[in-house]
Amino acid sequence: MTPRDPERGALYVAGRRLSFLDFGGPGRPLPALHGHFGEGCTFTRLAAELGESWRVVALDQRGHGRSDRSADHSRPGYVEDAAAVLEHLGADCPALIVRGSRNTVLRAEHARRMVARRACTSLVELSAGHTVRDTVPVECAGAVRGFLGSL
Q1: 9 has which bridge partners?
Q2: Are the CB atoms for 71 and 14 separated by under 8 Å?
Q3: In a designed cystine with 62, which of 51, 70, 114, 150 is the match (CB 3.0 to 4.6 A)?
């Protein structure tokens, strides 16, 4: 599947610019958080594989990609940023995708807190072994699509 060209957007949290890629489409919003040293474009191929059913919105987290740098890299800070993106989307976000890496536990903890706050209802964790930027393994995309289809 050919990836859509995403639209670059931004919102401001505590005076800091948070940049994101909105892959568009008529589907329900699906926020995505990259792993350490990543950025929102990590999810380009996955957005293409999920097709029109989901509108992937991938955040460049604080200090990454085109988002502003921050002296605060605390867990609550990252959760605040994710909550701001969910609020910005202003819609029912049934799930949150996180991609694992060196700090998988940290990212997953943030996502679990978002689920616990009922900002979204499910968590999809992609291990660092999945190269979601270049070539989404068929089984990975299929598994994510199958899980999201059950929501």
Answers
A1: 20
A2: no
A3: 70
Q: How far is it, in rounded angstroms, from Cα 35 to Cα 18?
A: 16
Task: In whole angstroms, give the CA distance from residue 67 to residue 92.
Answer: 24
d(CA 71, CA 63): 9
Backbone Cα Rg of the chain: 14
pTM: 0.76
Structure confidence by residue, pLDDT tens digits, 44-75: 888 888 878 888 899 898 888 899 999 988 87
Strands 7-13, 16-22: pairing is antiparallel
| 8-state DSSP, 68 | P
- Alpha carbon 39 to its chain's center: 9
Whether 48 contacts 4, CB under 8 Å: yes
19: Cβ contacts below 8 Å, ≥ 6 apart: 8, 9, 10, 40, 59, 60, 65, 66, 67
Query: Amino acid letter at 108?
Result: A
Sign of CA dihedral 68, 78, 84, 47: positive
**Edge-first strand listing for the sheet containing 122-126:** 7-13, 16-22, 54-59, 28-33, 95-99, 122-126
- Token readout for 34 is 């990259």
